[in-house]
Amino acid sequence: MSKSNKEGFHTVKTDFEELDEKIQNHRKKIFWRVVRIAAVAVAAVALLELWLALRSYSSYEIRSSAERTDSEAAKFEEFLGNILKYSNDGAIYMDSRNELIWNQSFEMTTPLLDICGNYLAIYDKGGTEIYIMTREGLEEKIETTFPIQTVCIAEQGTVAVLMKEEDISYVKLFDKRGKELANGKFYGNQGGFPIDIAFAHNAQKLAVDMVDVNDGNIKSTITFYNFGSVGQNEINNNVGTYSYSDMLIPEISYVSNDRMVAFGDHEVIVFEGEQKPSVKKEIFLEEEIDSIFYNNKYLGFVQNRHSEDGSRHIMVCDMKGNTIMENDTMMVYDSVEFLSNNEICIRNDHECELYTVHSIKKFSYIFDERLYQIIPQGTSADYVFILDGKTEEVRLR
What is the pTM of this model? Predict the structure, then answer.
């Protein structure tokens, strides 16, 4: 009787240390391969961004165009990426294709705006009406008792209002429903009169800018008020007062919750502080200044050096006073401002120049139609041009 052949299991002797070493070496090769690919990708992106940052354009292509009907008094502003058109008889909010989002009618002699976060205040300088608006439309209409000088809105819709009647000035705070939250009264014969106010984005701090003219001498005084728990422990919520002799400070502004900037006739003062603001930096202006523009990161100045060619010098510095951008322009301009992408836009009715914070003149163009506004879009070369009678989505080239 023959035996059947059977195959069984064979024991294989394995060197586990050698196998583990091979696995580790394989993993290292994969890791370093991924690192090299990622480094190349990062370098490529960085080079692309650098190329775009240093590139200049002299023309553009129109991606889409939509016609509008405007009045002579129409003005335009960007609000949450869309277009706000306003005039004496109302405001229209629309997208870049002129599709209506909302329409708010009113009658104002001098309509002005203030924007913070998702809220917009439209008010009548010298009048008594304030409209608090959002992306959805009207939040509240506020009627004031006295003529309005200026309005500041916070990111949750609270407004601070400076009003004046004869020799008495009033500062009042209202929530977005029109409820009065706080008020103050200032008499012109008792230490000067307020000419501006600044309101922190979180509505917790207010600064009042006072000017006192006595025997031909000018003194500016800035007083800070805190409406939080810290301010409640101080007399009249006053958490700091700073006075400057022989200097006029016509404008102050909170550029963030904890930073306020005061623009004097020969210096800019940066205040910082979460609860009690103090002087962080003084930037002295040695050149004659034609215009000042700013945002939450940078301070910009257009200096008139009375050069033979008639050029003006554009300079931008950070909040520490460090110069980060300089360039010259020959344009006789009407407006200079930071766009939402931190580019500097200098323009008049038909000319426009765009500068980056890298001191590059990015775009220069003379339009046939009147130019109202430029709004940056998703990429560094995409913009919306608001021209007379039409809105164009364009790409620079």
Answer: 0.84
